[in-house]
Specification:
This protein has 401 residues and is mostly beta strands. The protein folds into two domains: 221 residues, Immunoglobulin-like (Sandwich), CATH 2.60.40; 156 residues, Immunoglobulin-like (Sandwich), CATH 2.60.40.640. It is elongated, with a radius of gyration of 26 Å. The termini are far apart. Belongs to the arrestin family. InterPro entries: Arrestin-like_C (IPR014752), Arrestin-like_N (IPR011021), Arrestin_C-like (IPR011022), Arrestin_domain-protein (IPR050357), Ig_E-set (IPR014756). This is Arrestin C-terminal-like domain-containing protein.
Length: 401
């Protein structure tokens, strides 16, 4: 039985255990081993792996379509025996540091209906008999900081109407809406003003504003797509004839863990977003208004190395595994490790978690996502009055026409 009671990987900027990095950033951390007694080992290694996978079954033919691509596959030896002599790990708590500079051309992490982009670190201890003494893994997120164009700051205007029969008469329902911008960054609020008027005999049962994600998956010449709502605000006023409904300064949060528009540097998955307003009307009628929404972020980072500082000086001890070759002592992730990954993701696609204001490592005070030093998920839209900043109240109210 191995003397290693516990083996784990910790990373430096750990906020609520949600590790998040951007391409080009330096990952720094430790492999930590807790031993019940002295142990003779051959080496301690750490690997970093990033890959994209897609797969789905054709509903008509039953054919399975699959594709994958590898973004990182590197390994380094933290410590190893010399001259054929065993290396002794002494009893107690032992920490071994490591660092790795992420490549610039990594796609953002993503888990969707038919595919994913995931990243993981794996640590392993090989005993002197060449057996695996302990193994551990730690997933982490990569999110690209794609700059958004200045044009997104212009308002998004949406409007439409529909004539419906109700109560033996034909009437019209109209909706007009203005959104404060054409895009946003994960964790940020977008501001909605809307006016709905019901001059028909049908009840308007619900009004919904949502951010929708549209993902396209490629496997060879085959493609499939999937659309989903990643966050929404729903209002159920049950508006009768000659009644109206007004939204003022209503906030809808862009979920914190969604990737940027297009999912750059991934050739098998594409992502686009839309902002949608939908009215549910009695009699299975609806009004649906939709416009493209750009998702990106500020380009600054947490710890990007100086351009004059060569990546080779950090990654020189890491070896890149060639495709199709099996590295010596390669061990597949155990079912336990897979369960740990699911637990880390909450067992749910991150962008579909119910709590929109998930704590985000980059949303701490002083983060580059927030120049005011406040958390973006609770930023308030403000106006000047008598020389002072005043919070704009969020209003949903009914009106009479």
């Amino acid at each position: 039985m191995s003397a290693i009671h516990r083996l784990l990987i910790t990373l430096e900027h750990d906020i609520d255990e949600q590790y998040q990095y951007q391409p080009g950033e330096i990952i720094r951390g430790h492999i930590i081993a807790t031993l019940s007694r002295n142990e003779q080992i051959r080496n301690i290694t750490i690997s970093i792996f990033g890959e994209g996978n897609v797969g789905w079954e054709d509903e008509k033919t039953g054919e399975n379509n699959q594709a994958s691509e590898t973004y990182i596959d590197s390994k380094t030896v933290i410590m190893e025996s010399q001259m054929g002599k065993p290396l002794v790990l002494k009893q107690g708590h032992r920490e071994f540091p490591f660092e790795y500079e992420l490549p610039e051309n990594l796609p953002s992490s993503f888990i969707g209906k038919h595919g994913s982009v995931t990243y993981i670190l794996k640590g392993m201890v090989i005993d002197y008999k060449n057996n695996v003494a302990a193994i551990t893994s730690e997933p982490f997120l990569v999110l690209r900081k794609k700059p958004l164009p200045e044009s997104i700051e212009s308002p998004m205007l949406l409007g439409g109407s529909k004539r419906v029969w109700g109560g033996c008469s034909l009437g019209k329902i109209t909706v007009s809406a203005a959104v404060n911008k054409h895009g946003g960054i994960p964790g940020e609020d977008i501001l909605i003003n809307m006016d709905v008027k019901n001059r028909s005999g049908c009840m308007v049962k619900a009004i919904q504003a949502s951010v929708n994600m549209h993902s396209i998956y490629h496997a060879g010449k085959k493609t499939t797509s999937f659309s989903q709502c990643v966050n929404r605000k729903r209002d159920e006023p049950h508006m009768e004839k000659n009644e109206g409904r007004r939204w003022m300064n209503s906030r809808l949060t862009v979920p914190p863990y969604i990737p940027e528009t297009k999912l750059e540097h991934c050739d098998i998955i594409e992502i686009h977003y839309t902002f949608q307003i939908r009215l549910e009307i009695e009699g299975n009628h609806e009004i649906c208004l939709e416009s493209p929404l750009l998702i990106g972020a500020h380009p600054a980072g947490l710890e990007l190395p100086n351009k004059n500082y060569s990546r080779n000086s950090i990654n020189s001890e890491w070896t890149v595994r060639a495709r199709g070759l099996v590295m010596e002592q390669q061990v597949m992730l155990s079912l336990k490790e897979e369960d740990e990954m699911k637990e880390w993701y909450g067992g749910v696609i991150p962008e579909l978690r119910s709590d929109a204001a998930i704590s985000n490592p980059l949303f701490r005070q002083g983060s580059f996502l927030n120049k005011q030093g406040r958390y973006p998920e609770v930023l308030e839209y403000k106006r000047k009055q008598n020389g002072h900043l005043e919070e704009l109240p969020e209003i949903m109210e009914s009106t009479k026409l």
